[in-house]
Amino acid sequence: QVQLVESGGGLVQAGASLRLSCAASGQIFSTNVMGWFRQAPGKEREFVARIMWTGGKIYYADFVKGRFTISRDNAKNSVYLQMNNLKPDDTAVYYCATGRWLGTYDFWGQGTQVTVSS
């Protein structure tokens, strides 16, 4: 079992930055993938970014490339999502998720709300 707790969301104006954190506890292996997803009101949940627990295989959704950066700190058992130049379309609940293997997401956090005003 893995527990994930997100934090760092909030209300910001367009163009601002936020840094989301995901604190992980439980059984995490070097093969675990850590991902960020988001779900806007009335829309399906969508992939944002992912990183392996070891730090490799970073991948971003096209709509965040150049604006968001995913990173991890194994010493703190945490994964981060630095979000710059936020846009109103980035408004959503952001979720952290992990799975034993690349492409699998078996455990999810409760989410953190990000609201970007124009």
Architecture overview:
With 118 residues, this protein is mainly β. 0% of the residues lie in helices and 53% in strands. It has no helices and eleven strands. It has strands at 2-7, 10-13, 18-26, 33-39, 46-52, 59-60, 68-73, 78-83, 92-99, 107-108, 112-117. Strands 2, 4, 5, 6, 9, 10 and 11 form a seven-stranded mixed β-sheet that branches. A four-stranded antiparallel β-sheet has the order 1-3-8-7, with no helix packed on it. A hairpin with a 6-residue loop joins strand 4 (33-39) and strand 5 (46-52). It is globular and about 40 Å long.
Keywords:
118 residues, mainly beta, 7-stranded mixed beta sheet, 4-stranded antiparallel beta sheet, 11 strands, 0% helix
Question: What's a concise summary of this model?
Answer:
The protein is mainly beta.
Structural class: mainly beta
Task: State mean pLDDT (0 to 100 scale).
Answer: 96
- For the report, how would you describe the main beta sheet? 7 strands, mixed
What's the quaternary structure here? Answer: single chain
Compressed to H and E, one letter per element, the order equals: EEEEEEEEEEE
**Spans of 5+ residues with little confidence (pLDDT < 50)?**
none
Morphology: globular
Whole-number radius of gyration?
13 Å
Helix count from the secondary structure assignment = 0
Beta percentage is over 45%
Distance between the termini: 40 Å
Based on DSSP secondary structure assignment, what is the total number of beta strands?
Answer: 11
Helix content: under 10%
